[in-house]
Amino acid sequence: MNKNNNLSNAPLVKDILFIHGITSFGKAHIAIAEQLGKLGYRFHYFDLPGHGAKQWEWNEHKFVFNDMLKFTEDYIKNNLSDQPFIIMGHSMGGGISLSLYPKYKAQIKAVILECPLTPAIFNRNEEKGEFEIGDLVKNFEKAKAVFLKKWSRIKVAIHKWIIGSDRCFTPLLSNIIKSTALDTIRSGIMQVDVPTLLIVGSEDKVIPPISTSKYLSSYIKDITVCNAVSSGHNPYKETPEQYQEFIIEFLTKINY
C-alpha cells in the first residue's frame, strides 16, 4: 500500500477520496476500499486530526470542524492536485465533503454520502415532526435556534450513540453543532450539481434518515437515495453487502 493508501496497483485510474466520521478512522472502511480497488479505483483514505492512531493529539489540541476541513484540503492539494475525483464521506465526513464541494467542484465528478451530517439533524425526532423540511429550507436560522435550546439534552443522547467513552470528541461534536459548521455544510449542499448517492440507515438514531433524504433531495437534483434496511448509523459495517452494492451500482450507473 503506498503513501496515499491507493489500494489499486493499476496505472492512473479513477480516484475516490473518502472521509470518515467523528470517532472513526480511515481503515475502518477497508472493506469497500478493497472492493473498489478490485474494480480499478484508487481509494484514498486517512485519519483526520485526533482520530485513529492520532487520538493522542487531543492532549495537545482541541480540534474544531475547520481543522478537519483544512486537513482534508491539504490532502487534496498534496495527492489529487488538479485531477478529477469522487468525494465520499460518512457522517461528519459527509458534512466535510459537502463543505468542500464549492472549492473543488471543477474536480469533483460525483458525491457519495453515507448517513451525512446536514442541517436535517435539527429534525432528529422525525416521529414528532419537529420541523417540516420546507421550514428547514426556508427558515434555517429559526430551526437552528430551536435545536440549540434543546442541545444540552440532545447532546447526551447523541454522545451515548456515537461517542461512548471517548469523551475527548465531545468538544468537536459541540463545535460542529454550535459553530458555523452547519451553515458551511448548507452552503455546500446548495451548490452540488453532480450525480450524488445518498445512503441512509433505516434505523439511524443519530442522523434522521427520512429528513436527511428529503432535505438533500430538495437541493440536489441528480440524487439517488438508497435505504440500508435494518441498519443504524454505520451501514458500512452493519449491512456491508447492501452498502457495497449501492455504491457499485451507482458507479456503474454514472459510468465513472
Describe the protein's architecture and organization:
- With 256 residues, the protein is of the alpha/beta class.
- It contains 11 helices and 6 strands.
- It has helices at 30-38, 65-79, 92-104, 133-138, 140-149, 151-163, 170-178, 181-189, 209-219, 235-238, 240-254; strands at 14-19, 41-44, 85-90, 108-114, 196-201, 223-228.
- A 6-stranded parallel beta sheet has the order 2-1-3-4-5-6, sandwiched between helices.
- Helix 3 (92-104) packs across helix 8.
Summarize the entry for a quick read.
With 256 residues, the chain is of the alpha/beta class. Helix content is 45%, strand content 14%.
In this structure, how is the largest beta sheet organized? 6 strands, parallel
For the CA atoms, what is the radius of gyration?
A: 17 Å
Low-confidence stretches: 6-11, 129-133
- Helical residue percent? 40-55%
Task: Return the structural class.
Answer: alpha/beta
| N- and C-termini, Cα separation | 23 Å
Mean pLDDT: 86
Total beta-strand segments: 6
Biggest sheet: strand arrangement: 2-1-3-4-5-6
Key terms:
alpha/beta; single chain; globular; 11 helices; 256 residues; 45% helix; six-stranded parallel β-sheet
